[in-house]
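Practice set, problem 2.
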Amino acid sequence: MPARVRKRLRYWRRIFSAYFGSKTSQLTFWHETPAVNYAAPIDEIGEYYMTFHDKAHYGGPFDDDGIPMLDYRGELGRQYNPIAIAQYGLAAYNQFAQGAGDEWLDKTVTVADWLAGNLTPNPSGVPVWNHHFDWEYRDTLRAPWYSGLAQGQGISLLVRAHAATGRDAYAQAAERA
């Protein structure tokens, strides 16, 4: 069987398993109805402009430090996805900013610490959050790969974490990113 056909079969097996398998998959995290957060200010740092309500209540899996992981099943298994991590952190920050309790600030700080500690230079020397797994999109994104969405949302979380805690490490990591 040609390599191109094998690649497509792997892709469709993964999609089928994610949608129709009996266990939770990465889709558990991604599939929520997008909602604008009308409480988000437009002229200062505050709540993020999307609610990410369902993401705040993501049921896992998490690593031992409380960082969300996505289960891509099969060969990929559980992976850190910097986009999902940043979105979970932004969701936690929104919960904290809405007065849901200090445990949400703790979750925000956990994610901010992970983001600040996991910036690595890309081939051009720009610090990014890498995805350490291959991903079939239009073409296969070969690990390590990075995403503008991870960069933007990671920076957004770090800026908010700095505003909430005053920790300079978050502002410095946001600047580097």
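Problem 2, part (b): a different protein.
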Amino acid sequence: MTNLLAGLLGVLLATNQVSAATNFVAQTTGITVPVVNTNDPVEKEYQKLLAADDAAQAEVDQWIRQNNEFKAKGAGVPATELNARIRNRFDPVLKGYEDFIKKHPDHERVRLAYGSFLSDIRREDDAVPQFEKARELNPKDPAPWNQLANYYGEHGPIKKAFEYYEKAIELNPNEAVYYQNLGTTVYLFRKDSKEYYHLNEQQIFDKALALYDKALKLDSHNFDLAQDVAQTYYGIRPPRTEEALKAWTNCLNIAQTQVEREGVYLHFARWKLNAGRFAEAHHDLNMVTNALYDDLKARLLRNLKAREENPDGTNAPVTKTATIQSSETNKPTTKP
């Protein structure tokens, strides 16, 4: 499922709007696909089911995009109407999974795929039994442990999320997503983290950053991951300015587009502004020319001018909103 669909569909279908907005799941798999006999009738049926899943999600993604475009022009259909249309489109996929499981109840990968699909459409409680069954069928597969940890990270108990992410890492210590997910959970739920790991707050920050560092070592060219790590520094007190700038420099080094690079320069400027390094902040803002960033650049320039006129003032950065990666079988994002 694409990030757009995961985010918008979550807000559209969820009954708990706050939960849907604050637990936006970024995605990558972390699942090892076994070598299978593609001529096996069961495998053919399974692959056909996955194709139907992907096709339905791609079509719904397109509907959401189009409706957003129409709404921007004063048109578009009401959310209730689009919601009903989405449900009708997904009903055959749900039935397909249910029929397959009736015939093949011990097929682990379909349990993971179905659980991931249910999570995507915000039926997380229904997804849990599927992940539990997958774990029962193959306790050494880290994917269901990671998926269940995602669930507990959103719904509690948080300590169970720590335990299950750690188990996923134990089973596959070479999957970056598992370290990222645990690092994010440690960072966001610091009270629970302190109790679980018997550490103080600064040590918890260090632990989260160490987990992120392991994720980056395993996936060193992942810009989104590097950016997520760099944003973490906005929530750390007292500020760790040099470490934050080093993290954003890493983002700059692996950025693939000019838009990504200019976004990094905005972060450079913000940190240097708050550190009183005004000339450097001006230099970084001069590197930003894309109209996409006009509003942010103008806001930073106003703040910079105010700080230059009143060097003793403050302009503390906001805390980041982190994301957790999820794990499925067939999607290039729960990041499953």
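Answer key, part (b): Residues 1-31, 327-336 have pLDDT under 50 and may be disordered. Residues 14 and 264 are 33 Å apart (CA to CA).
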